[in-house]
């Protein structure tokens, strides 16, 4: 049990299909004690999902864009546990007018909102939890490869590029305290959030064709396993890294059409 005795804060659980739910489930089976976060109307959905985990889990209120919620989170974790060993940042959002081929028409307000919720929030969450972390602790964020421009992803893709940069700066600043910061760049998975992206099926179809190991958009297990590895002491010398869990898609160039033989 690679997470035995670890106290983990996991954000981003909406339903049992969420990547974060798979992480929470696997983390519990690996010996961790888990708390979830949610807020607003989504909280009831999170609580229903939490009831399906192997062990009882409380859900703490957290709007990651709220300074008051972040301050309250620090106090709640200090009172409950006295410290935190690991955090999963699985938070991302972009307004509809910043996705689906609307890159050139998206207003600045929507781009800023995508950045704040999807990238700056990693720093905000780290700042709220790092005071409770000892050497050997770990922060892991969920990414989608931002080295290229994707169809339909638009300003969320820009926000993910910012997330990757934020994670490196956090690794720089928190490393001297023994706190690791890494990202998982996952292939497309059929979560509630992903299905809300216009044209999501285009990305899913591309993975089916190009990933050398294949890719199952309904299976969050491989991603959850990798997150648990990065949260564990087995990854104690890894920081500032982006680990691709995508069936190898990122390593392969653009697909080449199969030539049609001459008659």
Structure description:
The protein is of the alpha/beta class. It has a single domain (about 5-245), classed as Rossmann fold. It is about 40% helix and about 15% strand. The protein has a seven-stranded parallel sheet, with helices on both faces. Helix 4 (about 110-130) packs parallel to helix 5. The protein is globular. Residues about 255-263 have low confidence and may be disordered.
Question: In sequence order, what are the helices and strands, one letter per element?
Answer: EHEHEHEHEHEHHHE
Count of helical segments?
8
Helical content band: 25-40%
The CATH architecture name reads: 3-Layer(aba) Sandwich
CA-based shape? globular
Strand order in the sheet with the most strands: 3-2-1-4-5-6-7
For the record, what CATH class applies?
A: Alpha Beta
Termini separation (Å)? 60 Å
What are the defining features of this structure?
263 residues, alpha/beta, Rossmann fold, 7-stranded parallel sheet, 7 strands, 39% helix, globular, disordered C terminus
Write the layout of secondary structure elements.
Layout: E1 7-10, H1 19-29, E2 33-38, H2 42-50, E3 59-61, H3 67-80, E4 86-89, H4 108-129, E5 138-143, H5 154-174, E6 180-186, H6 192-195, H7 200-210, H8 221-231, E7 242-245
Parallel strand pairs: 1-2, 1-4, 2-3, 4-5, 5-6, 6-7
Helix pairs in contact: 1-8, 3-4, 4-5
């Amino acid at each position: 049990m690679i997470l035995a005795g670890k106290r983990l804060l996991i954000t981003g659980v909406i339903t049992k299909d969420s990547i974060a739910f798979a992480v929470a489930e696997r983390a519990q089976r690996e010996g961790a004690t888990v708390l979830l976060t949610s807020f607003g109307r989504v909280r009831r959905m999170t609580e229903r999902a939490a009831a399906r985990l192997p062990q009882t889990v409380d859900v703490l209120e957290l709007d990651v864009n709220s300074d008051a919620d972040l301050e309250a989170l620090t106090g709640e974790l200090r009172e409950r546990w006295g410290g935190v060993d690991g955090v999963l940042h699985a938070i991302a959002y972009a307004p509809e007018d910043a996705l689906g081929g609307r890159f050139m028409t998206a207003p600045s307000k929507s781009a800023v909102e995508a950045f704040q919720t999807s990238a700056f929030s990693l720093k905000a969450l780290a700042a709220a939890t790092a005071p409770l972390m000892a050497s050997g602790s770990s922060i892991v964020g969920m990414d989608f490869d931002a080295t290229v421009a994707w169809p339909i992803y638009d300003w969320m893709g820009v926000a993910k590029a910012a997330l990757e940069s934020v994670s490196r700066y956090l690794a720089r600043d928190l490393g001297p305290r023994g706190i690791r910061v890494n990202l998982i760049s996952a292939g497309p998975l059929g979560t509630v959030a992903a299905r809300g992206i216009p044209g999501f099926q285009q990305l899913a179809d591309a993975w089916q064709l190009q990933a050398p190991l294949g890719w199952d958009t309904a299976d969050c297990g491989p991603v959850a396993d990798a997150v648990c590895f990065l949260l564990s002491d087995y990854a104690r010398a890894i920081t500032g890294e982006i680990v691709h869990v995508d069936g190898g898609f990122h390593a392969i160039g653009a697909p080449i059409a199969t030539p049609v033989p001459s008659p």
